[in-house]
Amino acid sequence: NDLSLVNDDGMNGLHCAIELFDTEINVLRSLASSNFDSVASRCIDGRSSVDLLWNRFVDPDGKDDSHRNEDARVESTNLRQAIQEVCEPKILLRQKIRGQHALQEKIKLRELWELTCEFIYAACHGESLNNNNDISNQQKQ
After folding, report:
1. Residue 19's Cα: distance from chain center in Å?
2. Separation between Cα atoms, residue 94 and residue 97, nearest integer Å
3. CB-based contacts of 110: which residues, under 8 Å, 6+ apart?
4. Residues 38/31, Cβ–Cβ less than 8 Å
5. What is the pLDDT of residues 41-100, one digit of tens each?
6. Among 30, 10, 47, which residue's Cα sits nearest to residue 115?
7. Would you say 83 and 109 are in contact if contact means Cβ atoms under 8 Å apart?
8. How many C-beta atoms surround the C-beta of residue 16 within 10 A?
9. CA 141, CA 18: separation in Å to the nearest integer?
């Protein structure tokens, strides 16, 4: 498959895979690492692969999500709440600690964080983050 091909909305294969709510995260990683330009490209409406990840995993509001199962809806609500808890503006002093704790305790949040970091790195550097160092080593630096 050629991930540089786009549909009428300017969406490439990676974009379409992200929008399919049942595409496994490992498949998304494989698609991203096979064509870094697909990670950096934007749809006609200006959304990037990171925007699409956010829409899929955290904030599908405003999109037709009738094809999503109830588990996916609950999971996105839980992720959104976890992020809101970390970003609570009233307790800024503990924000870093809360963020670290949330990433350790909430597996789905950590998976989203790692995938988002990988996509941003690939889009900026044209290479896989995993080809350089393990993501956990990158985050510790």
Report:
1. 11
2. 5
3. 103, 104
4. yes
5. 999 999 999 999 988 888 766 555 666 677 877 888 888 888 888 877 666 667 778 788
6. 30
7. yes
8. 17
9. 29
